[in-house]
Write a structure and sequence with these properties.
14 helices, five-stranded mixed β-barrel, eight-stranded mixed sheet, alpha+beta
């Protein structure tokens, strides 16, 4: 019966060859479409693991005002622009239905931690020359130029300057108040360049000291509003009976102590995801010794920390060492690289007490590189320690030293790759105008667009292959089975069983189908690699900046799109097509065999 079926094929060569070619084409389309779809899924998975999408948030100013600062030397104002913000937009504004976060939005704070037993600067580094002194002018004067002052007492100085006298200028006030030789004044001053300084002639005038700001408080409530305070906030204050009666001596004493401590204080930044810190996201910072934070460190609030290389080097700190950290007050307005060194007292003129203390284990030591092309504010402070936000067990709501609107360098979040459009649709529906959101995905959107284009092609190929397979099988089963009724009748009349007749009808068409599936799938497997390789190519990305490997040194590696066909997918698509051929030919054969031989002989059919 099988030989008879094969002989029948050779008797209709044109029809047989055409059927073979069309089956090959069906198999090729299906194989290519399925393999391309498989490559798309694999590439998406690969990129999901290698890339991440981070958003930064910035509350924009409602206006910009021009402000002037008096310059005593130039006898004129220097003007600069100052941003004016409206009502503070809370972080909760980013809570939106239908938006899923990998890491929820956070407005990171850094905390002042007093560590007097540790070395803050290298031996050859230095601070500004700052001092708090009680002094009197040598003679009555208006300090709109450098005037000679006699030091009565040095309350604080960064360095031992042996200040017996110095020159003071209230440089940035247009109309300084008169100072009298018979009065004493308390002042916080910086040592600046000489008044009238000339390049190449640095000793023609004495260095002047100018006001560095008196005791002040920027303590804020949990919602970011500034707390009212009764501090004098004077740069220079007369020390007289009223000074003591009003308790200003107590306030200045706290200010002196705060200044003493700040020069032995390091910033500690708390985060719920290390990758939300731009320096780590871009790879400008990476853990070179030890390990980065683990998922359980964030979830359980483990007392672990990352220590900067410079701080660890100068203090001999190693991975596994323990640091006792006591948190005094938080700065939500600025990153440590900008805000460290700013001092604040409480609203009633006292120093902040530690609201939380704990021992932290050094999990890793990180290195910092220059911040690249990013604006100032994204870099890390040389002494900045980083901890999981959940490790701080007590609330800092009563210890907020500085508050401010959300800024891109301290407010960020992570969302799943490829969901930027959905996020922005939900955000725009809220109608908040004075907040800008910027996304960074390291080119994932561009890669995703290319993959979706390939995926659309794959679906078109699969759809075309399926439609073509249906039409080809129905048409040729009609020609090679339904129109062979007389042949079936003759075979049945000569004593062939239904099964034997079925084998005779199906074996030829299935032989062509299996050959066509094999040839088509091999061709499809080969062409898929060529097409995918030509469309996708290969691009190089720095995986040291990708999710999950922020602790690696920034060695450049290739992250390439996959372009190799999968043999299992190829075999499966060919098998599915052959199975469909078996099903369709079986249905048509069953239609022939269910009729009686005499009825078949009486019908019209093709030999």
């Amino acid at each position: 019966m099988i030989k008879n079926s094969i002989r029948q094929l050779f008797r209709t060569k044109v029809k047989t060859v055409l059927f073979l070619l069309l089956i090959c084409l069906c198999a090729l389309l299906l194989c290519m479409g399925c393999n391309l779809e498989y490559l798309c899924k694999q590439n998406i998975k690969r990129f999901e693991e290698a890339f991440m999408t981070m958003g930064t948030v910035e509350q924009t100013p409602v206006s910009v005002t021009r402000q002037g600062q008096w310059d005593a030397e130039k006898q004129d104002y220097r003007y600069f622009n100052s941003a004016e913000y409206g009502e503070t937009v809370p972080l909760s504004a980013l809570d939106m239905e239908g938006v899923s976060y990998i890491s929820k939005p956070e407005q990171r704070a850094f905390y002042n931690v007093y560590l007097p037993e540790y070395k803050i600067l290298d031996d050859k580094s230095g601070w500004h020359h700052e001092a708090i002194v009680i002094a009197s002018p040598v003679e009555d004067c208006v300090p709109d130029h450098p005037v000679k002052m006699e030091v009565k007492e040095v309350l604080f100085e960064v360095y031992d300057l042996n200040m017996g006298e110095f020159y003071f200028c209230d440089h940035y006030h247009e109309n300084p108040e008169m100072m009298y030789a018979d009065k004493t004044y308390i002042m916080n001053v910086y040592n600046g360049i000489p008044h009238g300084w000339e390049m190449g002639n640095p000793d023609n005038n004495p260095y002047e000291w100018y006001p560095a700001g008196g005791p002040s408080s920027s303590q804020a409530n949990a919602d970011g509003t500034l707390m009212e305070n009764s501090l004098p906030e004077l740069d220079v204050e007369i020390v007289d009976a009223a000074f003591y009666e009003n308790g200003h001596d107590r306030i200045w004493e706290a200010w002196v102590r705060e200044k003493e401590m700040i020069y032995h204080t390091i910033p500690v930044t708390a985060t719920a995801d290390l990758n939300l810190i731009m320096a780590f996201y871009t790879g400008d910072a990476y853990v070179g010794d030890g390990n980065t934070f683990l998922a359980e460190d964030y979830e359980n609030g483990n007392k672990v920390c990352l220590v900067p290389f410079a701080f660890a080097r100068r203090n001999g700190i190693k991975v596994g060492d323990t640091l006792h950290l006591g948190f005094s007050y938080a700065n939500y307005a600025q990153p440590a690289a900008i805000g460290w060194g700013r001092c604040s007292l409480t609203a009633d003129g006292q120093q902040f007490e530690n609201f939380f203390e704990a021992d932290y284990t050094v999990a890793g030591i990180y290195n910092s590189l220059p911040s690249g092309n990013l604006d100032t504010g994204y870099e890390l402070h040389e002494n900045e320690i980083i901890i999981p936000a959940g490790s701080i067990e007590n609330s800092d709501e009563n210890n907020i030293g500085f508050a401010g609107p959300m800024k891109p360098y301290n407010t960020s979040f992570r969302i799943p790759n490829g969901t930027i459009d959905e996020f922005m649709t939900a955000w725009e529906a809220k109608g908040i105008d004075d907040v800008e959101i910027h996304f960074y995905d390291k080119g994932y959107s561009r890669l995703e667009a290319g993959i979706k284009q390939m995926e659309r092609m794959a679906l078109i190929l699969v759809g075309a292959g399926i439609v073509m397979a249906v039409l080809v099988m129905v048409f040729f089963c009609h020609l090679m089975i339904t129109r062979q009724k007389k042949r079936t009748a003759v075979e049945r009349s000569l004593g062939a069983s239904k099964g034997q007749s079925g084998v005779s009808l199906m074996s030829g068409i299935l032989l062509i189908a299996v050959v066509g599936c094999i040839i088509g799938c091999i061709a499809g497997w080969y062409l898929t690699g060529k097409i995918a390789g030509g469309m996708e190519g290969k691009e190089t990305f720095d995986t040291a900046y990708s999710a999950g490997i922020v602790y690696e040194e920034p060695d450049e590696e290739e992250v390439s799109r996959g372009s190799d066909s999968n043999m299992a997918v190829t075999i499966l698509s060919g098998t599915a097509l052959f199975a469909f051929a078996v099903l369709v030919s079986g249905i048509f054969t069953w239609g022939n065999l269910k009729e009686e031989p005499l009825q078949l002989l009486s019908g019209r059919g093709e030999e």
